[in-house]
Design brief:
- The protein has about 325 residues and is α/β, with parallel strands linked by helices.
- The protein has nine helices and 17 strands.
- Belongs to the TrhO family.
Length: about 325
């Protein structure tokens, strides 16, 4: 049976509040917390994904202002998360299809045991001070995100490890002795969570002066005026907006629903692009049987749109 999500609950103004959050804390009762958190989100019409683990909470959710406020208040009512911080942005339409509260071994998967940002971590740098740090010739700037994210935006002069997953990052560090050539290491990611573990790992590898952008790229784009910015391109986000730009305005990227790569307007103008079926990144990697299966799915999505509904597979 085809799953259909009715969009009649979308706010008339088309404006949804998006909250990105994470907090590292010893949370042994994380499994018991899942059901009540899921129920509260559902009751308030909040959608997105929240990850729970023994090391804390991480995720992004969207909904009405009141709905998001209720969920954040409930999370902060837990003693472990009383100091939780979050970042806000806006979406013109609901950027998630459903609400998922998942149990995980790690809230951000690095695959290195005993990395604890509550025990050791880099020095936080406020967005207003970031430009000076990364412009210092004594600083190596490292983007800790994955290759499909860095492909659409990066800080000027930053090193791109071109990793496929965050699990590859530790080996990339171990295999790059040149990282010791300058005294300062400045690291950044989308919202700050990957850098919590990345800087902790760097410190344990013997790097002394390790810094990371507080609040990540999202906080920088929110607070630093575009005319002063050293950010180039757009920032990939893990929801249906796909990307945001300065001022956290929605970008013009779309997602290829065959390979999940972010697509520019130029990509979508390519003869290799077929909505929901293929794009320049994956056209030659998919069999004709795969493409036909994707076409059938796309037809179902088109039919759902005509009925004013949203196909859950879209």
């Amino acid at each position: 049976m085809t799953d259909i999500l009715n969009t009649s609950a979308d706010a008339p103004s088309g404006s949804f509040l998006v909250a990105a959050l994470y907090h590292f804390a010893r949370f042994d009762r994380y499994a018991d917390f899942r059901a009540s958190l899921q129920s509260l989100c559902d009751e308030n019409g909040v959608k997105g994904t929240l990850l729970l683990a023994r090391e804390g909470i991480n995720g992004t959710i969207a909904g009405t202002d009141a709905g998001i406020a209720a969920v954040l208040a409930y999370i902060r009512a837990q003693p472990e998360f009383a100091a939780l911080e979050h970042k806000e942005s806006r979406a013109s339409k609901m950027p998630f299809l459903r609400m998922k509260v998942r149990l995980k071994k790690e809230i951000v998967t690095m695959g290195v045991e005993d990395i604890d940002p509550n025990r050791i971590v880099g020095t936080y740098v406020d967005p207003k001070d970031w430009n000076a740090l990364i412009s210092d010739p004594e600083t190596i700037v490292i983007d800790t995100r994955n290759d499909y994210e860095t492909a659409i935006g990066i800080f000027k002069g930053a090193v791109d490890p071109k990793t496929k997953t965050f699990r590859e990052f530790p080996d990339w560090v171990r295999n790059n002795s040149g990282l010791h050539n300058k005294p300062k290491i400045a690291m950044y990611c989308t919202g700050g969570i990957r850098c919590e573990k990345a800087t902790a790992f760097m410190k344990e590898q013997g790097f002394d002066e390790v810094f990371h952008l507080k609040g990540g790229i999202l906080k920088y784009l929110e607070e630093v005026p575009e005319e002063e910015s050293l950010w180039e391109g757009a920032c990939f986000v893990f929801d249906e907006r796909v990307s945001v730009t300065h001022g956290l305005k929605e970008g013009d990227h779309k997602l290829c629903h065959a390979c999940r790569e972010p697509l520019t307007a130029e990509d979508r103008a390519s003869p290799l692009f077929e909505e929901g079926v293929s794009c320049p990144h994956c056209h030659d990697k998919r069999s004709e049987a795969d493409k036909e299966r994707y076409r059938q799915r796309q037809r179902q999505i088109a039919l759902a749109r005509k009925r004013g509904e949203k196909h859950l597979g879209s």
